[in-house]
Design brief:
globular, TIM Barrel
Length: about 170
């Protein structure tokens, strides 16, 4: 399968993007036939620091991993989706993170709605920003990218705190 992640998604075919966290796991996924890869934040932090992803890894730590994995993926025409955490701070940080991940070779960035500093995504009681703030964050991320081919994926951590059907009220957790 050839083309950008955006083009591949447009086909309507199911894409399987195995979670990778270092070059060994990426090479294993590619050897097994992966046509898309997902650089997981939890796995990347755990393999790098031996600790859960609780906001310990910095933007610089993560964009460096994106650079290495992105180069490998580009050589093989494999889109890399990379976990961009909360954007590593406020709105200015989100724009900087998007530009950095795009320049590093990711095809898409995933940005979450947790408050900053964040908790590990696998723990209960994660606090999320108001919906309106997340909408602003995604707008800033979209405006910051250099190419429309670079995709912005939004992730919510609201389910465990608010449930699937509930939206947090304005200004709430």
């Amino acid at each position: 399968m050839q083309g950008t992640l955006k083009a591949r998604l447009a086909t309507g075919e199911m894409l399987v993007a195995p979670g990778v966290y270092d070059m060994i796991s990426l090479r294993m996924a590619v050897s097994a036939g992966a046509s898309v890869a997902y650089m997981t934040g939890y796995g990347s932090v755990a393999s790098h620091l031996g600790l859960p992803d609780a906001g310990l890894a910095s933007y610089r730590d993560m964009v460096g991993r994106v650079e290495v994995m992105g180069a490998y993926c580009r050589e093989r025409d494999i889109p890399l989706i990379a976990d961009g955490d909360t954007g590593y701070g406020g709105i200015v940080n989100v724009a900087h993170t998007v530009r950095g991940y795009e320049a590093a070779g990711a095809s898409a960035i995933q940005i979450e709605d947790q408050v900053f500093p964040k908790k590990c995504g696998h723990t209960l009681g994660r606090a999320v920003i108001p919906t309106e703030d997340m909408v602003t964050k995604i707008k800033v991320a979209t405006d910051a990218r250099r190419s429309d081919e670079f995709l912005i994926l939004a992730r919510t951590d609201a389910r465990t705190t608010h449930g699937l059907d509930e939206h947090p009220p304005d200004g709430a957790i």
